Amino acid sequence: MNKRLASIFGKIADANTAQAGMEELYQFRCDHPDVILEQHPSIASKSTQFQQFVLKGLQAIEQREAATSPNGGGRGGGGGHPSMSPPPQASTPGSGGGLLSLGGLQKRMAAFRMGGGA
Questions:
Q1: Tell me: the pLDDT tens digits for 59-71?
Q2: How many Cβ atoms sit within 10 Å of the Cβ of residue 85?
Q3: Separation CA 118–CA 95 (nearest Å)
Q4: Cβ-based neighbours of 97, under 8 Å, separated by 6 or more
Q5: Dist. CA 57–CA 21, nearest whole Å
Q6: Phi, psi of 29 (to 5 degrees)
Q7: Please, are residues 28 and 8 in contact by the beta-carbon 8 Å criterion?
Q8: Closest CA to 32 of 64, 78, 66, 1
Q9: Which of 17, 40, 57, 103 is positioned for an S-S bond with 22, CB 3.0–4.6 A?
Q10: Of 26, 33, 32, residue with least CA distance to 8
Q11: Angle in degrees, 0-180, between the axes of helices 48-68 and 102-113, rounded to the nearest 10
Q12: What confidence tens digit (pLDDT) does each residue in 71-104 have?
């Protein structure tokens, strides 16, 4: 799983394969809701700009999936995802800001930098 994530993040970091990598990460996230992506070294060690790029890319895919899905839930069909929340305007009750929401990501990254872990 770690190798797959490292490969996906490598694609995202390359301008020629970034969109394909985003799509792959979105699908990975749907397939593995228990994985906390921001704890993976391939994103935790990257700049805030890269992390925000990934977040915005995933949010765009979520919005697209919600708009094209008859039940509004995207590929997962659940209307949300435990490790990535929808963007603030599409927030779902009880989502708690999500683990990779911008605010949640910034708080968690600050905690990591301070040595506090998750």
A1: 999 999 988 877 6
A2: 25
A3: 17
A4: 85, 103, 104
A5: 10
A6: -60, -40
A7: yes
A8: 1
A9: 57
A10: 26
A11: 150
A12: 655 454 444 443 444 333 333 333 344 444 455 5
